[in-house]
Every structure is written in C-alpha cells, then in structure tokens.
Amino acid sequence: MKKILAFAVTAAVSVGAFAQAYPSKPITLVVPFAAGGPTDLVARQLAEAMRKPLGGANIVVDNAAGAGGTIGAAKVARAAPDGYTLLVWHIGMAATTSLYRKQTFKPLDDFEFLGIINDVPMTIVGSNKLSQNRRYRDFENYVRTNADKVNLAHAGLGSASHLCSLMWQSAMRLPKPLTTIAYKGTGPAMNDLIGGQVDMMCDQTTNTASQIESGRVRGYAVTTAKPLTGNKQLSDLPTLDGLGLKGFNLTIWHGLYAPKGTPADVLKKVNDALMVALKDPDFIKRQADLGALVAAPNDKRVTPAGHKAFVAGEITKLKAAIDAAGEFAD
C-alpha cells in the first residue's frame, strides 16, 4: 500500500513539475500552408506576441503545406500531446470534413481547441479588364449574363478563396457554376487576376487591400455583415448583405490547436498566453495592417469550449455550400 501511495505521489509531483516547467524547449507552431501567405503571417505575428507571456519561449514556425492544409493538420494530430507542437489553421478546419472524402484525422475529435485568433474579411475583386463594370451591381449583372465566359480563380481546393467562391456562387443562385481555375497558392492566382488572365476572385483582405488601393484590381464588395469603416482601403465597398444577398456574412477566422490529450495545465498556459497576445496593442495593430480583426477578449470563441462550439457550427454551415457545389477531394 505504501509503495502504491508513494508511486501516486511521485506521479503527481512529476506531472506538476512538467506543467510548471513548460515550456522548457522550443515550441513548434505548424502552419499548413506555404511561407508568406496570410495564415503564415498571422502565425508569425502570433508567435512573437505569445513569446513573452510564455516566459520568452522560442516559438518556431514550421510550414507543412499541401492538400488544402490537411497535411500540416494531420502532422499536429499525430504529434506528441505535450504542448510543444501547436497548429494555426483557418476556416479549413471546419471545411475539411465536407471537402475530403478520406481523412486521417477528425477535426472535432483529434485536437484540443485553444481559441480563435482573428477574423479576416473577404472581398469580391475583379480584373481591370472588366473596367466597364465599375460597381458591384454592374459586375453582378455582367456575371449573370456572361456566366459561360467568366472565369473565377482560387488558391486551391480548401483554400479561403475557394470556400468564399463556393458560398458566393451558392448565394447568387447561378444556373450553373462559373468556370473555376484552381491555383497552387494565392500569389499565382492574384498575379493572373492582375494580368487579366482570369476575371474575378474572392479573397482575404490580407491579400486584396493593397492591390485594390494600388488600382491593380477592382474591389466590388466585402463579405462581412457590416462595412469595413475602419479600413481606409475598403471603407467605401458595400456589403454583399446590403446588396441583396441577405444573411451573407463570411470571415476567414484563424484558430489555435494542440494534439488531443495535451495536459490541461499546459493547455491553460498556452490559452493564457493567447489571451495576453489578443490584448497586445502591437499585435492588434499589425493584424489591422493586414486587414484582420483580432478577436476581442470577451468573445466566447477565445475560450476552448467556445472555440470548439463555433467550429462545430461552421462545419454545418459550410457543408451546405460544399455539397451543393459537388467539389470534393479524395
């Protein structure tokens, strides 16, 4: 009996010592997309903001790109549940269950949810070769009457621009889907939009705001419920909801995750550090410069339970648009 009691005490002390020592080595923050993209920028800025509240920890960003983010996500799902491998992923966490027929992980079962980081509005943008369509209404009429000629770019299956284009086409109730061109990343898609090789795109403000401001592409509308009055480049753009697509409200949120089974004390330390980062004025400003809105500390989604409940709801919302489009991956 004494040996059992001694073992229990030793185990408890060991667990407590582990949690107290965390982090004692570098933390890897996995980004399931290539370096330089919007999710990568969010993750790198978050790593800087969380370093101090985690005791000056060295946080290393690992870009594990491929298969719409699922390769990097699977890597984290399989990682040791010790808090030293974390994941930053966007709305793809909710879309993957409908987009991919075969998966090596289950979003709601194989991760610990730590909290939402931000919301990134989306914009409907068009090539300057459509210069005669100066306003969204003109552009919409053009699309409806020339649906067989219009081509739409996105950054690949499961990308933010892909999901936005699916939801926009669904809300438009077009008789048939537009011709869609999938690229391997946002950069090539945007380059071809600027060059006039494609007609339109729906993408994050982190990618479009500077292009709209420079006049390289034309901005038509934002996907948020309210106008982006706080953003000088986008404040004049109307909302899709206000233009008649009632209820259209889409942002590309980013969340923070750990492998399932990560100790509760470690999760609390990471979530506490996230909460500090979300209040960091420098982090808020840098995100605003990207066109992103940092989640408010009183937002229920910044809590682990609130985050998971939100993602569960997003899975249901996105499934309808994805099923209607009939675009799936093996």
Structure summary:
The protein has 330 residues and is α/β, with parallel strands linked by helices. 42% of the residues lie in helices and 18% in strands. It is built from 11 helices and 10 strands.
Structure description:
- By secondary structure, the protein is an alpha/beta fold.
- The chain is 42% helix and 18% strand.
- The protein has 11 helices and 10 strands.
- Strands 1, 2, 3, 4, 5, 6, 7, 8, 9 and 10 form a 10-stranded mixed β-sheet that branches.
- Helix 6 (160-172) links the parallel strand 5 (151-154) and strand 6 (179-182).
- Helix 6 packs across helix 11.
- The radius of gyration is 21 Å and the shape is globular.
- 44% of the residues are buried.
- Residues 1-19 have low confidence and may be disordered.
Mean pLDDT over the full residue set: 90
Q: What is the N-to-C order of secondary-structure elements (H for helix, E for strand)?
A: HEHEHEHEHEHEHEHEEHHEH
Strand content: 15-25%
The first-to-last residue Cα distance is 55 Å
Largest sheet: 10 strands, mixed
